[in-house]
C-alpha cells in the first residue's frame, strides 16, 4: 500500500510537491486553509489529485506518513500546532524535491536581500558556459515541479529561511549566503533564530562542498556557525581574502586555489554596491563549477537583471520610473536608494513586518523629495519620516500612487517604487504590485 503524503498549502511549492509525489507513486492529498488559485486548482484536477480549500481537515491530515509544508505557513499557525502535537514528520518542499533529484548538482542561494538577482545571475553564468541547469525555487518553478516535470543535471535554487526550516537531508554542493539583515522577526522572534535558519543551508555539507558568504556582513559574522564542514569562500570589498573574492582599487579578484579571475568593477552590468557583492558571489559560484575566467567576465558584464528588481520602466516627460517591487523589507529600500543618482519620489508601504525605518533615514534625507505611501495603513511610515521630507501623501491604489508621484516629480527626477513591505494588503503578491505599477506608468 502506498505511503500517504499530505501537502499543506496549494501555491507553487505545494502543487509542485503534489505533482512530484504522484509521479513517485505516493497517495497524495492537498489541504489549503484559503482559496486555491484557479490555475493551481485546474492542475490538481487534471492530475487527479484530491484537495480541499478554505479549511484543514485535521483527521485526514493526521493520517499522513509525510507532511510537506508550504513555506508561507508559520509554525504558529493552528494547523502546525496540531501537527506538532501529534509528532508528525514535516518536511519542506525543497527537502522533498532534493530526495528525488538523482545526484544532480545543487547550487543554493539564500540571504535577506539579493537572492533572486544572484540566483538568476548564477543561472545565466552557467547557461552562458554551456552547462545545462534549471533556475528554481522562489524565482519561478518550484524545485519539486522541476524535478517532477523536467529534471536537469544541475539546479540553481533560490531558498528562503522558511524553506530551510524543515529540511533534513537537503545538501547543496555550493551554498551561498549573501547577507542577514532584520526581516521576518514577526515569525522568528529574534535575529539569532533567523540567522540560525539561514545557516541551515550548510548543515549537510561536507569537505567536498563550498560555502560562499559575505565577510563584510555584521550578522553573518556575529552568528557564524563553528561546525561548517565545507570549504569556506568569503567575499569582501573591505579586506583581501586568500580564497573567494575581494575588491582592491576597483578591481575584483575571484580566486579558488591558484586560479584567479580579475575584472574591473566598472565592467559589471549591475550597478550599486550591493550588486558588487551579488556579482562576487556569482563569480565564485562560477569558479566552483570550473567555468573559464573569460566566460565569468563576459557573463557578469552582459547580465540584464530581473523583473521587479530595480527594473527601468519608462521615462515620461523627463521623469524616470523604476520598479523595485521586490523590495519587501527596509534593507532592500536602502540598497535601492543607495543606487539612485537623481532626486527621488519614493513610493513605499504595504504590510509592515516589524520594520525599523531608522536605517534608511539618512538616505531619505539626502535623496528623497517626496514619499507616496501606498497601503491600507500608512501610519508607521508617516510617523517615521514626517520630519525628513516636505511632501508626503497617502494612497490606496497603484493608479493613485503613480499619479501623485508624477505630480510631485520634475524633469530629471526618478519615481522609485520600493515598498519595503509585503504586498498582500492591496495586491496578490509583489509581481502583481510591480505589474500594476508598470501599467499605471504606461497609462500616464
TrEMBL record:
Its EC number is 6.3.2.9. Keywords: ATP-binding, Cell cycle, Cell division, Cell shape, Cell wall biogenesis/degradation, Cytoplasm, Ligase, Nucleotide-binding, Peptidoglycan synthesis. PROSITE patterns: FOLYLPOLYGLU_SYNT_1. It comes from the Bacteria. GO terms for molecular function: ATP binding; tetrahydrofolylpolyglutamate synthase activity; UDP-N-acetylmuramoylalanine-D-glutamate ligase activity. Residues 308-419 form the Mur ligase C-terminal domain. It is found in: Cytoplasm. NCBIfam families: murD. Belongs to the MurCDEF family. This is UDP-N-acetylmuramoylalanine--D-glutamate ligase. It comes from Thermoflavifilum thermophilum. The gene is murD.
